[in-house]
TrEMBL record:
Pathway: Isoprenoid biosynthesis. Keywords: Magnesium, Metal-binding, Transferase. This is Polyprenyl synthetase family protein. GO terms for molecular function: metal ion binding; prenyltransferase activity. Transmembrane segments: none annotated. PROSITE patterns: POLYPRENYL_SYNTHASE_1 (PS00723). Belongs to the FPP/GGPP synthase family. It comes from Nocardia terpenica.
C-alpha cells in the first residue's frame, strides 16, 4: 500500500484529500503557459464527485480505493475540460465563484487547455497498467470513459437542440440529462468497478445507481438558480434563461401551470425581458404553481432509486449512499 494512505477497508479512509494532492501535482505541462492555464482550471478543485465515485465504486466491489486514486483524477480532468468548453459556449464569466478560464486567459487559450485536459484524461487512465491493474480491465475502463465522453457530447448537442422548446416534454429532458450529466457518473462507477475486479452484476448495479444519481444531480443543478443566490450557487443564475433552455423546474412548471401561468413562463424565456427581470418572473410563477416543491420531490425520488440499486452491496454500499445524499443536498 502507498505511504500516506489509509487502507480503504477501514471506515476512516477519505479519498478526497489524496485526490486533491494528485490534482495539485499532476496537471498537464512542465511549468509553461499551458500548465498555468490547466492548473487554474483544476485548482482549486470542486467536490471531486466523479473521481470519488470511481474510488468508492472500486471499494464497493472489494478493492482498496487508495490504489485507484492516481487513476481517478482522470475523471476530474475530463469533467473540467467539458466545463471549460461549456463556459465558452454559454459565455459564462463565473465558475465556482471565480472567473472562468476564458474570462481569465482568453478564449483561445481556454480551448487549448480544455483539449489538453481531454487528452490527459486518457494518458492518466492508461497509466493504470503501470500500477499493476490487469491490461484487459484498463482497456475496458478506457473504453467506458471514451464512450461516456461521446455520450456527453450527444447530450450537450441535444440540450442545444431543445433551446426555446418549452414543450419538449420530460422524457426528452430525462434523456438529455442522462447523456449530458449521467454519462460521466456512469463512467466513473463502471470504470471503478471494472478496475476493482467487480462482477458483471456489480457493474450493472453501479451503472444503474450512477444513472439515477446523475439525473438527480442535473435536476438539482437546474433548481439551484431558484433556490440559492449566485454567491452560493457559484455560477450565474440567469445563464439558462439567457440561452432559453427548458430546464427541469421549467418543464415541471409547464406541466402544472394553467394557461395564464404558461404564458408567463413563455414570456420569461422569450428573450424580450432583461435577464434579471425574467429570472424574478420565472421564479415567481414556478413558486406559485408548486413546481419548485414538485421538482424537489422528483429529485428525491431519483435519489431513492439510486439508493435502491445499492441494496445488493450491503454495508459496502454505505459510503456511496452517503456520498449521494451529500451531493444532492448541496446548496453551493
Amino acid at each position: 500500500m502507498k505511504p500516506g494512505y489509509i487502507d480503504s477497508r477501514t471506515e476512516e479512509f477519505d479519498p478526497a484529500p489524496a485526490l486533491r494532492h494528485y490534482l495539485a501535482g499532476t496537471a498537464a505541462g512542465d511549468g509553461d503557459r499551458l500548465d498555468a492555464v490547466t492548473r487554474y482550471a483544476v485548482q482549486p478543485p470542486g467536490k471531486l464527485v466523479r473521481p470519488v465515485l470511481l474510488v468508492e465504486s472500486a471499494a464497493a466491489v472489494g478493492a482498496d480505493p487508495a490504489d485507484l486514486v492516481p487513476i481517478a483524477v482522470a475523471l476530474e480532468y475530463l469533467h473540467v475540460a467539458t466545463l471549460v468548453h461549456d463556459d465558452i459556449i454559454d459565455g459564462d464569466l463565473l465558475r465556482r465563484g471565480r472567473p472562468t478560464v476564458h474570462a481569465r486567459y482568453g478564449r483561445d487559450e481556454a480551448i487549448v487547455a480544455g483539449d489538453a485536459l481531454l487528452l490527459d484524461t486518457f494518458r492518466t487512465l492508461t497509466e493504470a497498467a503501470e500500477l499493476g491493474f490487469p491490461p484487459a480491465a484498463v482497456l475496458e475502463a478506457v473504453r467506458i470513459v471514451a464512450v461516456a465522453g461521446l455520450d456527453l457530447c450527444r447530450g450537450q448537442a441535444m440540450e442545444a437542440g431543445l433551446a426555446g422548446d418549452l414543450y419538449c416534454g420530460m422524457a426528452r429532458y430525462r434523456t438529455m440529462a442522462g447523456l449530458k450529466t449521467g454519462a460521466l457518473f456512469i463512467a466513473a462507477c463502471a470504470a471503478g468497478a471494472v478496475l476493482g475486479g467487480g462482477s458483471g452484476e456489480e457493474v450493472r448495479a453501479l451503472r444503474s445507481f450512477a444513472d439515477h444519481l446523475g439525473c438527480a444531480f442535473q435536476m438539482r443543478d437546474d433548481l439551484l438558480p431558484y433556490l440559492a443566490d449566485t454567491s452560493r450557487a457559484g455560477k450565474s443564475s440567469v445563464t439558462d434563461i439567457v440561452n432559453q433552455r427548458p430546464t427541469f423546474p421549467v418543464l415541471v412548471g409547464i406541466e402544472l401551470a394553467d394557461t395564464t401561468q404558461c404564458w408567463r413562463i413563455e414570456q420569461s424565456l422569450s428573450g424580450r425581458l432583461p435577464a434579471d427581470e425574467a429570472h424574478r418572473l420565472l421564479r415567481q410563477v414556478l413558486t406559485e404553481t408548486g413546481a419548485l416543491a414538485e421538482a424537489s420531490a422528483r429529485v428525491a425520488a431519483e435519489v431513492a432509486a439510486a439508493r435502491a440499486d445499492l441494496a445488493p452491496f450491503g454495508v459496502r454500499g454505505e459510503r456511496l449512499i452517503a456520498l449521494a445524499d451529500s451531493m444532492i443536498g448541496r446548496t453551493w
